[in-house]
Description:
Elements: H1 2-14, H2 20-29, E1 39-42, H3 49-58, E2 62-65, H4 84-87, E3 99-102, H5 105-118, E4 128-132, H6 138-147, E5 151-154, E6 158-159, H7 164-177, H8 181-188, H9 194-198, H10 208-219, H11 235-250, E7 259-260, H12 265-276, H13 286-306, H14 310-313, E8 316-317, H15 319-330, E9 334-335, E10 346-350, H16 352-355, E11 362-366, H17 385-390, H18 396-411, E12 415-421, H19 441-452, H20 486-494, H21 496-504, H22 519-534
Parallel strand pairs: 1-2, 3-12, 4-10, 4-11, 5-10, 11-12
Antiparallel strand pairs: 6-9, 7-8
Helix pairs in contact: 5-6, 7-8, 7-15, 10-11, 13-15, 20-21
Amino acid sequence: LSVAQEAYRTGLSELGLEDPHDARWRALKDGKLRGDLELVMVGVADPKGIVREVVRALGERATSLVFAPEELRGEFDELGGVLTEAWKERDVPVAIEDWHVVDKPVDQAAKAMDLIAGFKGEFSAEQLTIGVCDEEIAPFLDRRLAEVGCSARHGRGIPAAGTTVAQLLDATARHLERPRFPSLAVLLRHPDLEPVVSAPCDLKARDSAECLDEYYNRHLPDRVDGEWLRDAKGAGDEVAALHASLGVVLGELSSKERRPLCEWTGPLRAYLETVYAEVELRPDVEAERVLISALTLVGREIGEVEALPQELGEREVLAHEALELVSRALSSASIPPAQPTFGMPTIDLLGWLELSLDDAQAVIVTGWNEGHVPESIQGHPFLPESLREVLKLSTNGDRLARDAYVATLLANRREVAFLSGRRSIEGEPRLPSRLAFHRPEVECVERAQRMIADTGDGRVAPSTEPLPAPVLPESATPKVIDTMSVTDFKAFMDSPYAYYLRRVLKFDTTDDTARELSPLTCGSLTHHGLEKFGE
């Protein structure tokens, strides 16, 4: 690692550049801090690395504000950071009635709404904050809040890597790197690209995904080399047309040649312009605002590639490598949250470390599970705990102490609730945060019983209100049933509606999950081979 780092620094130096972190350390070492600089740290519970050195160098010009009773002054160091040994075993004043255990993320969202309803309008939306320690809970909170006419505002913003533009770049790079049918199917299903590619193709009023799935299940293709099997149903012709149309949209990106990195920016801009040129985008529509911001970020990253020093910009790469470079740059970017809409109640969704500085009177913390609070790093290949301590980097003990302090601050809010889940969205078992058991031993048994309590499947009890009868779609041109086979009677008695869809309208389900020929297709193939042999 040291050799690699020195090679990196040497390469930057030859280009007249310097790593910003190295530049900060050098400025600190050379005493180049501004003489008029005043620093105030507010609620910085675990200052590390260069922050500590800057504060020490500033001396009396630095002030640290700590939120804690005066009698706890001895549990913080001279810079205002929590003392790990003092806090990592400290009791956390989270009452058991404020700790709730449910099953899955969807149940945590439902429980959060029940708790808000229990406030009986005592707090406005602006006086409420929901903490999101586990991001997989956020979509369920969004949906439940929308159902009651409330907006969710994500304080940390929207990760750029999750936008459709970033996903398009990622899917395109994967297919260009290794053109296989699965990667082709993923790319052609992209909602922004699919209309552009399928527009010039004659799909006989069929969906492109249907054509891809039908072709895949009949032929189980692997490589994409431009050769397509034709059959009586015409799926091969349709997939061939889609593939050819994709090549036109990709333009020069479909080239297999190596080019200087800076020469790929033009084809990449042309590709994005082809996909998005005709899309109408309105800044006042949230999904379209996000797309505008994502395209702006991509444009900025492409501009940075164009501005690279000549020695880097002329390095020859393949098209997919240029796309991957832009995609990686987006992985650390985020899109600011939308401003609250006038007249629309808005509740902030904040991360764990932002909660302690939020002034909401009522706080509901979701995802209060081990691995998220506190976050633990186990078995790091280069920086194990023992080495992290020597290098004065954050250790698992430091994070535990910091989170114990944050939980103590939150526990003193006017209204507070901590929600832990028993299972993830995939059904994997989850443990509650160990901070839930930072209590006197006599309380821990009751808390353990709450976590493993036999409550059926652990989900929030369903509402007793009768659900409205579902409205089933009907055929615009219904068909009269005048004959039925004997075996149809059982299907009809099981479900007349399902019988009508399957046996009368001949509807079926298809996907591209097969990894071998189905018995029916294998039998047809065998019969066809024997027929040709006989002829």
